[in-house]
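Notebook, p. 212. Picked up where the previous page left off. The plan for this session was modest: take the two constructs that came back from the sequencing core last week, fold each one, and keep the raw output in the notebook itself so nobody has to go hunting through shared drives later. Recording the first one now, exactly as returned: residue sequence, then the structure token string.
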Amino acid sequence: MAKEAAPYWKRALFSGVRIAIAVLVLLQVYMYVAQERMIFLRQGLGDEMRGMVRRARPDAQEIWLPTGGGERLHGWFVRNAEGASPAPALIYFRGNAEEVSGLALAAVELRGISFVLFNYRGYGRSEGDPSESALFSDAVAIYDLVASRPDVDPKRIVAMGRSLGSGVATYLATQRPLAAVVLVTPYDSMTAVARAKYPYVLVDLLLIHPFDSASRARTIDTPLLALVAGADTVIPPYHAQQLVKAWHGPVTAVVLEGSDHNDIELHARYWSTVRNFIRDRMADTLPPAP
């Protein structure tokens, strides 16, 4: 006796379920393969920007730092302080889609503090490929290079990180002594951000670069300034709030209302807030604001 065929609606349901499962599996594979390009949006350094930095900041010294793996990081040291005595220095870690050289033009906003600007591996003229572990080890090497300079006061080194760079600056604060940490549009962890954005992806299993700042923050006593974009559409303010709650040391959290993730630096209070925070921790040794 012939077996009766399943009703059409059952066949359609089973087909739909199989298609949905296949789509979900393919989505996991795609996200795993594509995450490097999504996290690290490499930017080059053209001759035009390089020349602009040289013209605007003749005191900017181009420097190269070996990574230990046969590759080199390219960066700038902007001597932004007068006199011969060792001066404070700010090590800046950029976002995931930014080339750092242009920040040399903003050094005028923090007179008295030398700027240290290195591009991540694969960005600008830096060699190699970026990864969480590479960015972390490079941050420590950058600090050690800066702290050994005779024109830098090793007791007055500040780490400043924006977006992706906030995770790098947070890590550095667990490895080396810092006078202060400034985090711009920070997050609790890359895992938490991705989990909220991609609820159908097995983020906890697939993410290679978790950048878990919240777990590290619990051990950090260094004073923190957290600058939060009130209208952030890339990293919702909730993630910054979770990091601030986890930070063990004293915290100053400032929400710049109306600013989004990519334009927070244009806010009228951006640099003045950073300047005043650092000045309070430098015992008023910095020159007055321009």
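Okay, moving on. Second construct, recorded in the same format:
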Amino acid sequence: MIPFELVEPTSLKDAVALIDPDDPTVRPIAGGTALMLMMKAGVFSPRRLVSLRKIDGGTNGIVVSADGGLTIGALTPLSAVEHSAEVARHAPVVPRIMARLSNVRVRNVATVGGALAHGDPHMDLPPVAMALGGRVRIVGADGERELAVEDLLTGYYETALAPNELITSLTLPAQGKTRAAYMKVTAGSADDWPALGVAVALDTTGGKIGSARVVVSAATPKAMRLPAVEKLLAGAKLDDKILQAAGDAATEEAEIIGDVRGSAAYKRELLRVYVGRALRAASGEQA
């Protein structure tokens, strides 16, 4: 790696001011688990890294609102989310995904904000946050704004963040009676990057689906909701017929791409099967 400058501001205002929006070699760094790999591989050679580790002001930690919603600071390590009793109580699908998210060494360092800002379609947290209706708070030179996670992710390793904007928190609304599940298929070890990820959140009443959020990732250029599948499921009874129809609809709607973890045709068949499995898991039935 070539030499670079490392600066350690103690406030968000100072951090934003140190990021040059016109210089792509100046980047913020939190856990650095992805950025350091890029640097070692020679894909990215920074002139300056702006460390966020010394920033306070509510960017690290988990807060529960009166209605059961969660606000998770962007600098909160994934391992803290994994072991949080409050997250397990109010959004149990989130800590469940952590056991197979890379390995414990990465989870001890990687942060919630980094997992979202990196824009990697293979990450497990973004599709789950989307299925749960998650939103991010963003700060930049022009002030603060808020985005739904589904609007944050715009393409393959691309987000709606301006070069000098930072995510400060992830908010998950109160889930009420919503039940969620996430399933992924890995071509290697259980904690490998997935060939496919499917996240589902369901509201069911009287044996019928009131509403559904269905998100596919890893097999697609970005984590993306499947509105046609959601519309198909709304008001339907969760039986074998609707599960098959949902799987077929998902393969028609999703933009599937092939890579080293499988061809597009292979991933399309995985999606056809795993949409149904994730829906059964979210409904409480055996997947």
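Notes on construct two before I forget. Residues 53 and 254 are 37 Å apart (CA to CA).
Flagging for discussion at group meeting.
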